[in-house]
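Posting this for the archive.
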Amino acid sequence: MTSPEDFLLATPLQARAKVTFQRIVDAAKDLLVEGGLAGLSTDAVAQRAEVNIATLYKYFANREALIRYLAVSFSQAQTESLRAAIASFSPDAPIHLVLPQLIDTMVRDWTREPSSRAIQSIFLMDPILYAEYSRASVDVAEALGQFRDPWGFEGTEDDWQRMHAVFGDCAIALLDRAAKSDPEEQEKTVNELKALALAYFAVRMR
């Protein structure tokens, strides 16, 4: 299991160091919101955070490590959000209620964390991040396992996990499109994603 800390050269321990580290992270997020990945450089982050570039390199080896740290942090937070949402449903909740609400949870997550919109697509381009995203899809599939029988799923556990992994790849592409669209187009894209989810999983339901 990948952890955000896997991309750190050092972990801030003292209170002052933690404040400085958080300024670096917050500065990177702000730059992602303002200019996307193209606007993110270690020099720009250090300048925005008002720290010496050497301080940034104390924690992150390079720009790639910083991006991976942010991406995995968001992925794990979103997985926990989805787990919490799944736990809130009764065991007999119908699929047409559960799946759309899970998609709404994902949308709310990147609405609350605007910087995540800039890194949606990178999960499919970076092998390390793709592995993390695939693991997250399996985690969600396991959490949804309680609904396999009530929903009438026909297939093995491997089939169940594979369906979630495949749908996860499709979902992140559409969520990336939605995140970069104006509000009206975003709503339409999210609704298309909900319809796609229901149609896709219905194929394997009795």
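The CA atoms of residues 51 and 175 lie 34 Å apart. The mean pLDDT is 94.
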